[in-house]
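[scheduler] slot 2 assigned
[scheduler] job type: sequence-to-structure, two independent chains
[scheduler] chain ordering preserved from manifest
[runner] begin chain α
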Amino acid sequence: MPTKELPEDAPGKYVPYHPEPYYSPEPLPIEPKLELPEQTRDLVADAAYQIGRVDGISSTVDFSAVLYTSLIRIEAVESARIEGANVAYQDVEAYHTRHPEGQTDPKIEKDLKEALNYETALTHGLNKIESRESLTLSLLKNLHSILLEDVRNEGDVVGGFRDHMVHLASPQPGKRPFVPPAPEGLNGLMTSFESYIQMGGQYHPLVDAAIIHYFFETVHPFSDGNGRLGRLLIILYLASEGYLESPYIYPSAYFNRHKIEYVERMRAVSETGAWDEWITFFVEGLRTQAETSYNRTHRLRDLQAHYDKEYSGSTNTDKFARQLLQYPYFTPLDLVDYLDVSRRTAYKIVEDLESDGIIEEVTGKERGKEYKAVEVFDILN
């Protein structure tokens, strides 16, 4: 097949290959250096402001640890959904309630396992960054192994770069697939990728995050899991640069809502050098998600104040209602441990709060009932 000719502004070229030419990007850093228009710089400044607001409000709430965990799980679900998984946030919370830390379920469905793996990988990566470890190819390969644990397809290389060609179908009907670089070029490209991260990039961290994400997805170094790992990488990079004091913004929900544009904007960079359009799309996603996280946290803080006022008494029901944001999904027996009360008291608390309409049973079973805090879940979802 003839090689598609690209303009000089394209940061790479198509290389003849049967049955489709593959795309070979230029190594990082981008040459010549990008000159961003004022409108893009203003958007970056606004996004930075929104992210700062999230850090500010998140540090003032009593339920920050639960919010942190909840947002990681929401991101895990959204990232799995982009890959076609049928999983909900409630499924992840239910799994952790049924399987306390250290317990696993060998019969877990693949879709849910993908979300749980993402949660584990993101938490692991953030812990490494907080321990001052560098964002290296070795760490990425380790995270890849976590992401694909028990969900790999036959032939996938896990924890290492792919050894075969891959074809990425276009979301646009009739458009030919995108073919990333051949395996023999991966080490050189990913070494430039690692070096760029180690040098701290060349632009504002939000712009560099856009460049890094584009490059990773275009090279597509692994046989599977590149989308999940690439989205996870955004958070880890911003955290490693000290730009996110607490990682309360997650991009997958935005990319999921704009999936076709997400793919097409990256392809336009490869084929026409449309960097500004891609960076604008990417940074707008972070800005939007930061604004969403701020509003979500503000609503949760208002809900906490409401529970503090409505359940200001000293009964066990009052005490648990005031702690509901810390335990948004639970079983009656969990309350025995949480509150150090008898089973009878635990069931009485559940009965009271269910009668008030602030919790509801979700399994529909006569035994092994599980409950969620209705208003908390409404806000988180």
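[runner] end chain α
[runner] begin chain β
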Amino acid sequence: MPRLSKFAAMAAAALTLTACATTDDLADVPEPMGRFLLGHSVTVVEQPEIGPFSREATDEAWEEAINFAMEERFGRYDGDKYFHIATKVDGYALAMVGIPLVFTPKSVLVASVTVWDDEKGTKINEDPEIFSVSEELSVEQLIGTGLTKTADEQMLSLSRALAKRVHQWMLENPEWFGDASLMDPATTSAGKPAPTAGTIPPQFARVKDGELEGGEEVGGTSTGVQSEVEGSGSTQTTVGETMVESSS
């Protein structure tokens, strides 16, 4: 399937799942997930497909938003075995201003995800898992978030929806993360609520008008993207394109 039509199909599928895209569970203690402890979240953005009627955003802005959302969700776990989450942005659309009730562009994100076992230095899922998500469910979607949110806020909403979908997928595969009964009793807690639950961090709540409108000047780049992943022992895994595989 050609790249454009593949993205269009995935974007359409994402819009049918809007009702599932809520992330209000961040304030809860997460479901147990074996010995899982987040090592690094790594995001790569390389010439993603940009949908029609979309604002544009920098690669760095996407890296920052996705890594923040992954760390916010998976950082709640306190196991004793490191795992890394690698994400590649395949395509997106950030809704522009439309005409309420007549034409309301929607925001979608398509991304490929691979989970890595730090101790073994290998991928857990051989082929990247592809996810397509829309923004978190809200009244704003009825009139179009192009009118109510900045590009930064749209990216954060999509990134949180992606992180939740990835979380659900990982919970469906508990064998990946080991037996929690093998952990030291001091680290057997399922986890803790996310400290940022229900909030929009300052870097994603920019003014609509002016130079920050498209997310062009999102401060900083994602941590660890150009560095190395330090394992729980002496193992190191190179971070970058070698960790993130694109879908064909």
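[runner] end chain β
[qc] chain β: Confidence is low (pLDDT under 50) at residues 16-20, 207-242.
[scheduler] slot 2 released
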